Amino acid sequence: MVLLLAFLFFWKHDKVETVYYTWYPGNSYDDQYIESFPARDVGGEPRIVLVRKVGNIDCTAVYYSNELEVLLEKASSRQVKVTYRVTMKFGRTSWIETLDTQGIPNLMGNTGQRGRGDCF
Questions:
Q1: 39 SS3 class
Q2: CA distances from 52 to 24, 33, 120 (A)
Q3: What pLDDT digit, counting tens, does each position of 44-79 carry?
Q4: Could you say which DSSP state residue 12 is in?
Q5: Can you tell me the distance from the alpha carbon of 74 to that of 101, in angstroms, rounded to the nearest whole number?
Q6: Whole-number Å distance between alpha carbons of 39 and 64
Q7: Which one, 13, 45, 76, 116, has least CB within 10 Å?
Q8: Averaged pLDDT of the chain
Q9: Cα 60 to Cα 51, 57, 94, 95, distances in angstroms
Q10: What is the pLDDT of residue 67?
């Protein structure tokens, strides 16, 4: 029974993880993946680029939000706190859901990475 429970936990489970990114205003983060996102979305919201290092990997999050941009411009630091719910299957990330971005709940963004490995 214990082995079955351990297997089921390892097979699929969720964890909540809070990480800190660095905000790169404007076009200050030079990367082809990021450049594939337009500077503004169809509604005119500005692109927000967040990056954090995990080993040799650059983990990125791209948002479109006037509200987030205003918060970041007023902040004294370029550090941005983001909380995710991460679903793991067999020890690997299979789904990422943003719960909170710098105090803004459920802000939709795109996550990506440059380098081999896992950001979570």
A1: coil
A2: 11, 15, 11
A3: 999 999 999 999 999 999 999 999 999 999 998 999
A4: E
A5: 15
A6: 9
A7: 76
A8: 88
A9: 5, 9, 17, 15
A10: 95
Give the integer Cα–Cα distance in Å for 67 and 58.
25
In single-letter form, the type of residue at position 77 comes to S
Between CA 26 and CA 46 the distance in angstroms is: 9
Q: Would you state the structure tokens that stand for residue 95, as one six-digit string?
A: 């789904």
Residues present in the chain in total: 120
Which of 50, 85, 83 minimizes the C-alpha distance to 65?
A: 50
Distance (Å, whole) CA 37 – CA 111: 12
Nearby residues of 39 by Cβ (< 8 Å), 6 or more positions away: 27, 46, 47
Every domain of the chain and the residues it spans: 2-114
Which two three-digit tokens encode residue 43?
């509604």
Tell which residue, 42, 49, 61, has the closest CA to residue 113: 61
Helix (H) / strand (E) element for 10: namely helix 2-11
